[in-house]
Amino acid sequence: QGCNQWVNYFLHSGHLGIEGLKMSKSLKNFITIREALTTFTPRQLRLMMALNPWDRRMAYGVQVQEEVKSREAQLKNFFSNVDVVIRKSTNSVNHPQKWFEEEMTLSEAYKSAAASIHTSFLDSINTRGALDAVSELIKATNVYLSARSGSDGQIPQPMLLRQCAALVTRTLSVMGLTPYTSDQLGMDNVGSGDSEASKRTDSILDALSEFRDKVRNLAKSKSNPAEYLTCCDCLRDDALVEIGVRLEDKADGTSVWKIDDPATLRKERDEKIAAQAAIEKKKLSNKWENLKREIEKFAKIESLPSLQESLSAKYAKFDADGFPTHNAEGQPLEGKAIDKAKKEVEKAKKVRIPYEKKVAELGTNFLNDMKGQLSDLQAKLQSM
Fold it and tell me: Which contacts qualify for 223-226: CB closer than 8 Å, 24 or more apart?
């Protein structure tokens, strides 16, 4: 009998561009999927393709990679923030359901996003437009959460946020960016299995037990309060990172936890440590440069001849206060010549004042001490 219908959709894809050039074997810029997966995760590759209109040339490179990772981070942060609100609302039925202007605004943003997403998919499968609508909804949600984090006593509406997250999840599901639809929110199937949940629980209990031991030992030894804070930072930056738990400090002194990929958390932690180390190295380098200039300045002053020696080419005799009384020919100074000579002496003294102050403050050996400090700073810089 045959089939009366040929195909449902016909898509004509454009070329793949790499750093401004068409990908081809002749140009030796051919990238296989296996090679691409060393730079992107599978989801990031799907996201990169979804962000590009299917009928246009697609770019592949550093700039695209930055946008993809930024979009992915935006989505993950959105789901984590919504999860925190839902998790804190232990009983949604008894939660105050009264809406204010902020809820109305977010609700309108939800309706607008839903309409834009639907229109984008009908518009020749415009996945980029759908993702842009999702991004706008996330921005509106962030504004709402920021408004509700104030001190007015109003807390976020979990059901409204769940509705927004369900729309985002459903949209991502259509593009194969999440295994969920809308009954379960998010992108990652983290901790859903019983065995995985059990492993995570065991790891968390081990981390808390170790943390308690450290705190008790610090208390017994009556340690400095700063050591307690260091212990807390170690729990957040080391133990919980390895488990895949992100602990974020809030402005009001509380904290929230979010589930994340341990590799992502390690990378963020290492980048933060590297950035802090770079700042510390820059500070140390500036300190070294400033100290070096100080040493050079004082060494130059120290090498200067005495006042009388420096002015001996112009004046032959000086009084008890060090002021010239006779010119180089041995003739007494008079009138303006005396004033000029005094100005030259004052100028020469002014140059030597910083050195004399240092000697009075630190002793005659201060320059050698400064050189020792410079060597110590140099050793620290080389070890960083």
Answer: none
